[in-house]
Write a structure and sequence with these properties.
- GO terms for molecular function: endonuclease activity.
- The structure is a single chain.
- This protein folds into 2 domains: 201 residues, Endonuclease I-creI, CATH 3.10.28; 91 residues, Roll (Endonuclease I-creI), CATH 3.10.28.
- The strands form 2 sheets. The chain has a 6-stranded antiparallel β-sheet with strand order 1-2-9-10-8-7, sandwiched between helices. The protein has a 4-stranded antiparallel β-sheet with strand order 3-4-6-5.
- It has 12 helices and 10 strands.
- Helix 1 runs antiparallel to helix 2, helix 3 crosses helix 5 and helix 11 runs antiparallel to helix 12.
- It is of the alpha+beta class.
Length: 334
């Protein structure tokens, strides 16, 4: 009877959780299992087993594995943040811009024998031109997307000088070495760095191409719940290295997932504790793409919740409007 009782609680808990178009609901279900797991099962290897999740818009199942979860108090109360966000500022110094550019490149950079290519969203022309101006070389190509193309030798050397020692994985470093950039530009290419991801612009650069901010409102009017999700995901092969996601998780909390079909990792977090750390970081190190607009709206949603306005129809209307106006809609593959 005890087993049936706890299984029933698990099912009820799952039904009360909002579907977020991602694995946020799953993450919270795992958290419930962790809290009640001793009664349900003594086998904690459950957390490393594969689970099949289904998106309502997709009729087939796509397997995804919960790789790592940093447990937090899901019942913790929201802590207040300032109503004011300081004036937007780009990374100006060589040190700051170098970390930011390294983050962009780690998210979506391609290097070949004589060129660097960065691909942006079609709405992010201004960011591509900012990179061009700051590096001093290159060109911006507009098509279905926006591409920054750097081919000038002096520009490639400037890029290498700015970012050397600021990459967290060996993905781009290997590309540089395979194309003999160390010999061409007489620069000793440094190995992957190990720094606190909260203390520089690297994550801002990475998330300008791979970050998502989601406002989740449950459909269950009898047990309404609102959550804010911060997600990091790309579909690029270089994200088969979990290092960056592990860095984020160690400082922010949250969960890391592995797409079993592509072998690509992604990161998701939705607790108020993680939300607070996310705000603290992006308030200091600003995004520079249209994702800054999404973050600004997501931050406004946090303030609506901290004032308790989500408990009335007017507040819910505000949240629904903010959610609908997001530039980048995150569509989960699981």
């Amino acid at each position: 009877m005890a087993f049936m009782f706890n299984l029933g609680n698990l099912i009820k808990s799952y039904k009360r959780l909002p579907f977020c178009g991602s694995s946020c609901r799953t993450s919270n279900t795992y958290r419930f299992i962790f809290e009640h797991g001793k009664k349900f099962s003594d086998n904690l290897s459950f957390f490393n087993q594969k689970r099949n999740f289904v998106h309502p818009s997709k009729p087939h199942f796509i397997p995804s594995t919960l790789v790592s979860e940093l447990n937090e108090n899901s019942n913790a109360k929201i802590k207040p943040i300032s109503d004011h966000l300081r004036k937007h500022a780009k990374p100006i110094s060589d040190e700051a811009f170098g970390y930011y550019l390294a983050g962009l490149i780690e998210a979506n950079g391609r290097i070949s024998n004589d060129k660097l290519k960065l691909t942006f969203d079609e709405k992010d022309h201004s960011l591509a031109y900012f990179i061009k101006k700051r590096v001093g070389y290159g060109k911006v190509i507009s098509d279905d997307s926006v591409t920054y193309l750097l081919e000038h030798p002096q520009g490639l050397k400037a890029m290498l000088t700015l970012t050397n020692g600021k990459f967290l994985t060996s993905n781009f470093i290997d590309q540089l070495l395979n194309n003999e950039y160390d010999q061409k530009y007489e620069v000793s290419i440094l190995p992957p760095a190990d720094f606190n991801i909260q203390q520089n612009h690297f994550l801002a650069g990475f998330c300008d191409l791979a970050g998502y901010f989601s406002i989740i409102i449950s459909d269950d009017t009898s047990d309404l719940e609102v959550k804010l999700c911060f997600l990091i995901r790309t579909n690029l092969p270089q994200q088969k290295d979990p290092t960056i996601f592990q860095k984020v998780q160690s400082e922010f909390g949250g969960s890391i997932y592995l797409d079993d079909e592509t072998g690509i990792y992604h990161y998701e977090a939705s607790s108020f504790q993680t939300n607070l750390k996310t705000v603290a970081y992006f308030d200091q190190f600003h995004l520079n793409s249209t994702r800054f607009v999404d973050y600004f709206k997501w931050r406004k949603a946090y303030r609506v919740i901290q004032r308790g306005e989500h408990h009335n129809q007017k507040g819910l209307a505000k949240l629904t409007k903010l959610k609908g106006s997001m530039v980048h809609k995150y569509e989960s593959s699981v």
